[in-house]
Amino acid sequence: MAAAACTVAGAALFCAYLRLSGTSPMNSDSANILLMGSDLLHGNLLLHGWYMSDVSFYTTELPQYALLESFLGLHPETAHVAAAMTYTLALLLAVLLARGGTSGRTATVRTLIAAGIMVAPQLGVGVYALDMAVGHIGTSVPPLAVWLLLDRADRSVPRWWVPVVTTLLLAWVLIADQIVLIVAVAPVALVSGIRFIQGVLASDGLPWTRRVRAQWYQLSLACAAVAAALWAWLVNRLLSALGGFVVHPVPFGIRPWHEWLHKDVPALWKVLQLYGADYRGLAGATAAFAVLHLVSVVLVGWAVLRVLRRFLARIPLVDQVLAVAIVLNVVLYAISWASLEGAHEIAVVAPFGAALAARALAGPAYRPAKRKTADSAGASRVRLAGYAAGALVLGGYLAGLGYELTQPAPPPANATLASWLAAHDLTYGLAGYWQASSTTVDSQGRVAVRALSAGSTNPYLWMAKASWYDPGQNYANFVVIDTQTSTYADWVTRAMIERYFGAPARTYRTGPYTILVWDKNLLSSMPRIPLVASTGATSPGL
Asked: Is the pTM of this model over 0.85?
């Protein structure tokens, strides 16, 4: 019965998030993942010649996209289907983790808290960060499965295979995304290490060898986390040695301390965006819904503080891991240069926080000792008031989701450009990043547009394939310029293009786009791409 209910709920949520994803148009980031998936599907299993971003997605989203493309094809809607699948999985796993093996009223309350926090991503930035963006929200899915395993094991007799499976799953997702070091590997190692030391010290009076043996499970989990990092590193080195893809180094660095005060507050607004609570610049119903979502932020913050306050007490291992992961992710994001990026960089905080809020605020491990019978009537009134307030908030969240689902779906970012180019037999050309691969996918591959680097005519090797710029394989005879509507449109200017490629033979204008056409192969005039020997090397053209 529970499995059937979960299946029905999952199908309904998937339909809702598919519609919600459509309110955020597909851009070149998602398009490039689709193109990678297509190449993977067509036999390039190591993605030879590909220059990834600082995240490869090789073991997470890429197999998912390739599988979907085998049924749906290279189409913008495929990206929306993948996004809806990912967020639905994250929500369902967060709810299962929140329940934590409970039943009855406790399980119901936990389910409503976790699902309520995640059910309605904020229109615009929230939908992009949690639903449409290919990023760390997909990374959260395998760790949530690991936390489910650890939570189940924490409530039973420890089994030797639990650390082994933990190693494999963490290594699997770490191959794809280095943020797993912060949100999974380090928390498991730290928490298990602390619990190991606590267990050894609590067995005072026994020989130290027996004390260590008695804590073998906690020590094994700490070792499993370290082993996962080692295995992931070895696999990535092997992929590189076999001629696989190139990953850019993670641009992580701590900002000077005197900048923290000025930069941390904007960074914390992005935490609010994850929970739908960024009310700045909003009015009317959308502002009301955003203010109501501040309740989610308070609940998650309260839960984290509750866990930290009782961190060394007898509380579930998974609660400790979730709290450490959230704190590490948010703090390092706020004090590093990563805070200049969007909320999708800390997207794992959303499902982790939802699960932790439910577990810490409706869990027996955090309940105070029972009071005298005379207080029971007052406690019942407080409990009923809490349930009523929760029902009102949840109703508001569902109303907000309903409002979001009625919003119009914009067309793909460069769909009109793709149609125009195809109609004029312009099938291979160059453009700025945000006009390039999105146009390619919008045309379903009939037109190919490749990205130029910012402020130059070099290949932009960010989620791009080296062979795209090979004049022996391709003939590019046009450049698209958009100075009116697109983000970072000034990456490619007409003056720069003409200074390098010379005057075009023909010039066209359609909508916000200017299309410059030459009677020559522009790729022959571009710098050649040098070979890069190892994964993690910095690519040229950046």
From this structure: yes
